[in-house]
């Protein structure tokens, strides 16, 4: 049987000494303040994505808009779930989820988009998903083994962002570029 690196008595004493830190113990290997900042940037990214997808859902019109709008709505709901996971992790780590609308766009990795053209909506959403894929991949690599729980949160989000990018690419391929969309 494998031995603990620290004896049980010492683990128990440490757990009592800093009980107010919740799950953050001496074994936590990451820079907590930087992790909280990165989590809040990702939270802003997800919230901007929710707003962008909702805007596109409500303003999509034209011949191909029905299936595309349905995809926008599904993505908006999934991005909201991502935001909730991130906010929960921030709170678990003793931080404060930053929902300040005045700074959302400056903290977000992806921009907001108010396109009215269906093809442009798809393109802008695909670009945003690709940005999320790239940034979440970098975050996962940066976290490494220093915060495995936060890394797993980002791995879950990354898998769904990749799925979103694939969905949008497929929709873009199905809409003939030479046909009018209305």
Description:
InterPro entries: Dps-like (IPR014490), Ferritin-like (IPR012347), Ferritin-like_diiron (IPR009040), Ferritin-like_SF (IPR009078), Ferritin_DPS_dom (IPR008331). With 182 residues, the protein is mainly alpha-helical. It has a single domain (35-174), classed as Ferritin. The protein is 68% helix and 0% strand. It is built from six helices and no strands. It is elongated. The model has no long low-confidence stretch (mean pLDDT 91).
Task: Note the topology.
Layout: H1 8-17, H2 32-59, H3 65-92, H4 104-107, H5 118-143, H6 148-174
Class per helix and strand makeup? mainly alpha
Number of helices: 6
Radius of gyration: 20 Å
DSSP summary, beta strand count = 0
Assign the CATH superfamily.
Ferritin, core subunit, four-helix bundle
Mean pLDDT: 91
Oligomer: single chain
């Amino acid at each position: 049987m494998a031995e603990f690196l620290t004896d049980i008595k010492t683990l128990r004493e440490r757990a009592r000494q800093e009980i107010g830190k919740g799950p953050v113990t001496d074994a936590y290997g990451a820079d907590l303040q930087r992790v909280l900042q990165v989590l809040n940037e990702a939270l802003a990214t997800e919230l901007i994505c929710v707003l962008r997808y909702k805007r596109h859902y409500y303003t999509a019109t034209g011949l191909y808009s029905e299936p595309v709008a349905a995809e926008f709505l599904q993505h908006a709901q999934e991005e909201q779930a991502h935001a909730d996971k991130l906010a929960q992790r921030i709170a678990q780590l003793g931080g404060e989820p930053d929902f300040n609308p005045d700074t959302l766009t400056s903290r977000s990795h992806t921009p907001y988009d108010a396109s009215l053209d269906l093809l442009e909506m798809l393109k802008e959403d695909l670009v945003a998903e690709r940005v999320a894929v790239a940034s979440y991949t970098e975050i996962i690599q940066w976290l490494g083994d220093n915060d495995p729980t936060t890394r797993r949160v980002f791995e879950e989000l990354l898998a769904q962002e990749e799925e979103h990018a694939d969905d949008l690419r497929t929709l873009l391929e199905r809409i003939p570029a030479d046909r009018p969309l209305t």
